[in-house]
Amino acid sequence: MTQSLERLVTESAKTLAPTFTGLKCRECGEMYEATAKHVCEDVCFGPLEVAYDYDAIRQRVSRSTIQAGPLSIWRYKEFLPVSTDDVIDVGTGMTPLVRANRLARRLGLKELYIKNDAVNMPTLSFKDRVVSVALTRARELGFTTVSCASTGNLANSTAAIAAHAGLDCCVFIPSDLEAGKVLGTLIYGPTVMAVHGNYDQVNRLCSEVANSYGWGFVNINLRPYYSEGSKTLGFEVAEQLGWRLPDHVVAPLASGSLFTKIYKGFQEFTKVGLVEGKDVRFSGAQAEGCSPIAQAFRDGRDFVSPVKPSTIAKSIAIGNPADGIYALDIARKTNGNIESVTDAEIVEGMKLLAETEGIFTETAGGTTIAVLKKLAEAGKIDPDECTVAYITGNGLKTQEAVQGYIGEPLTIEPKLDSFERALERARTLDRLEWQQVLV
Ligand SMILES: *Cc1c(COP(=O)(O)O)cnc(C)c1O
Ligand SMILES: [Zn+2]
Fold first, then answer.
1. Partner of 63 at 20 to 30 A CA spacing, among 128, 170, 204, 271?
2. Residue 261 falls within a domain, yes or no?
3. Is residue 131 part of a domain?
4. Dist. CA 24 → ligand 2 center (Å)
5. Which residues pair with 251 in a beta bridge?
């Protein structure tokens, strides 16, 4: 190819129309322009979702174009609702998919993987995915101030990525969050509003602010764009499994968004022919102290009754989940389950994952592992199923949760005999006695 022809081809690639066509109401199908809008305000007040031209995507992407792309969520750009090439890429995504053989053996499973977003970039949770997409779109739509209603991780991510992109940032959190989550927001220099109230009250306040301040709230007026970022959790697993879908996934539920978007991601990859279609089972995890979706599942209801959260799993403590009914529907139609576990089981789940796989997750991940264990023990995961558990956040941010449950270092003098005495003592105590000593 001559140089000028090459340039022509690159230039025309740049001016390709975006693959997304607008926003579509999930309930009535009404179409809207792709602006900062999240409800079907002309017809039924249902939630809006990004719509795509899948023929255009099919023509533009293949396994090899994706593999030649950046090592971040932006390798799937054609499936994401942004038109600019100037995306905010801080290395988000392409986190490890770890074959978890030791944990699998403990649970009586044969093929288990951990999708490890505890090491996502830049702020060590899956929220970096949704925020990278939302802020790229926010900038494209002309917003200069961005915001969010957060249970902790979203504030970390919005503050960090806004800092990188040079956007002004004001975030809202419940005032009782873990110290690590608060510090992990403040360091990036945003304005932080700590609200006396739970997440659902924070969210309601933010809806009012969003209506009157002209800010881009990633999970309110930008929510349709934000939530698309979670599809990359599905895309990456399919690619990392060698372009195939797993049999069963287990993921945590807060608003229910990420759960429904992993499903959408698998559907889209199938639709454009990147993977062979398969009936993947979807199982969801909640903390008993905030389990409105699990309760609805158990009761056979198709509506979700709001609850008042009380659990150590604060990052998933949403009492009135926006996507709850869609998550319920997916769990039911895929022959999955939605289970809840106690705070004590969540701590055990965190320890189990750390001790078997060397992965330190936060309380949300502890919830997922505890539910995985519960489902495996109840025979609700077949030992032969290729199962993926999604670990969505990092344990260093919720240290309070495990304090007092994990033992202490043996403090010794810098002398060999002191070490030997301590070692002797350590040997005579098995782990159980250990904990009794510490209580
Ligand atoms: C926000 C969050 C979730 C759940 O997100 P939804 O999409 O609202 O269901 C899960 N895990 C962690 C660590 C989170 O921060
Ligand atoms: Zn509608």
1. 128
2. yes
3. yes
4. 8
5. 284
* Domain range for 320: 97-124+230-401
Separation of 430 CA from ligand 1 center, angstroms? 36
Which H/E stretch holds residue 57? helix 54-60
Q: Do residues 249 and 356 share a domain?
A: yes
Q: Is 315 in the pocket of ligand 1 (CB under 6 A)?
A: yes
For residue 62, what are the contacts with CB-CB under 8 A and spacing of at least 6? 274
pLDDT(139) > 70: yes
**14 within domain boundaries:** yes
Q: Does residue 169 belong to any structural domain of this protein?
A: yes
- Helix (H) or strand (E) segment spanning residue 173: strand 168-174
Same domain, yes or no, for 14 and 163?
A: no
202-252 pLDDT per residue, tens: 999 999 999 899 999 999 999 999 999 999 999 999 999 999 999 999 999
Q: What are phi and psi of 258, to 5 degrees?
A: -60, -40
pLDDT of 34 higher than 80: yes
CATH of the domain at 113: 3.40.50.1100
Percent of the chain surpassing pLDDT 70: 94
Q: Which domain-ending residue is among 165, 191, 226?
A: 226
Helix pair angle (153-165, 179-186), 10° resolution: 10
pLDDT > 60? residue 1: no
Q: How many domains does the chain have?
A: 4
The confidence score (pLDDT) of residue 436 equals 52
Ligand 1 atom with the shortest distance to the CA of 327: 9
Domain boundary among 23, 47, 79: 79
Residues 106, 203, single domain; the answer is no
In whole angstroms, give the CA distance from residue 19 to residue 9.
18
280 closest CA partner among 291, 294, 265, 292: 265
Q: What is the mean pLDDT of the chain?
A: 94
Distance CA 264, CA 261 (A): 5
Q: Answer yes or no: is the C-beta of 127 below 6 A from any ligand 1 atom.
A: yes
Sheet containing 20-25, strands listed edge to edge, beginning at the edge strand earlier in sequence: 31-32, 20-25, 48-52
| Pair 214, 308 in one domain | no
Distance of CA 349 to the CA centre of its chain: 18
| Shared-domain flag, residues 258 and 349 | yes
Say which residue the tokens 């809008």 belong to.
Answer: 37
Based on the fold, state whether residues 300 and 246 are members of the same structural domain. Answer: yes
Is 156 close to ligand 1, i.e. is its CB under 6 Å away? no
The answer, yes or no, to whether any atom of ligand 1 lies below 6 A from the CB of 364, is yes
